[in-house]
């Protein structure tokens, strides 16, 4: 009798679970497309002009760095020569003041260059953000148009067929959706002092 009850309970449980499992949707077969994101981000019209603008910003920063550091280097060598001439004797007040002033200038220049370098890095990140914002919907549109349900970056594949490559589609759509990008990031919000 116990065996009959157990078999009946098992049959009842199976009849409840089986329809639920059958109603779950099967995962469709993968239809894969690939995109060469490196080519897209280097060949898009807005990307090329943004890259040129960034190169210009970096070149300007390097020139500024040279123009700020050259006089400091000259001054540092002069101070060091004056200190060496003392042959271990204590420097006078004028040389000590000159050395302190030099160190303050050196720190100010380093901070200024650091701020300018950070701005270039923010600009670069802002450009990437603008491109990525446009690419997300483009991926979906291209996948839908080409009947794909999975899009993979070409660099992560071992081999592909040109028939699954949608790079040109993505590049064309990006050129249309993003004719230009802003190459200067918005100003960072200043930290607000906290009240007491």
From TrEMBL:
One GO CC term, this protein: cytosol
UniProt keyword Cell membrane, yes or no: no
Keywords from the UniProt entry: Signal
InterPro entries (UniProt xref): Chaperone_Skp, Skp_dom_sf
Domain of life according to the entry: Bacteria
A matching Pfam family: OmpH
Family annotation (Gene3D superfamilies): Skp domain (3.30.910.20)
Family that this chain belongs to: Belongs to the Skp family.
Protein name stated in the entry: Outer membrane protein H
């Amino acid at each position: 009798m116990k065996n009959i009850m157990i078999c009946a309970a098992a049959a009842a449980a199976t009849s409840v679970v089986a329809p639920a499992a059958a109603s779950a949707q099967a995962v469709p077969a993968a239809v894969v497309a690939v995109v060469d994101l490196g080519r897209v981000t280097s060949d898009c019209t807005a990307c090329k002009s943004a890259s040129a603008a960034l190169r210009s910003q970096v070149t300007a920063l390097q020139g500024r760095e040279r123009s700020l550091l050259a006089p400091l280097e000259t001054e540092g060598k002069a101070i060091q020569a004056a200190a060496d001439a003392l042959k271990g004797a204590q420097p006078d007040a004028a040389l000590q003041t000159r050395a302190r002033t030099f160190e303050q200038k050196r720190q100010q220049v380093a901070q200024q260059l650091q701020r300018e370098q950070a701005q270039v890095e923010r600009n670069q990140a802002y450009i990437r953000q603008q491109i990525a914002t446009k690419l997300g919907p483009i991926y979906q549109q291209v996948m839908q148009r080409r009947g794909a349900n999975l899009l993979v970056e070409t660099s992560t594949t071992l081999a592909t067929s040109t028939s699954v490559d949608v790079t040109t589609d993505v590049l064309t759509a990006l050129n249309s959706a993003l004719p230009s990008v802003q190459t200067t990031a918005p100003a960072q919000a200043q930290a607000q002092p906290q009240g007491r």
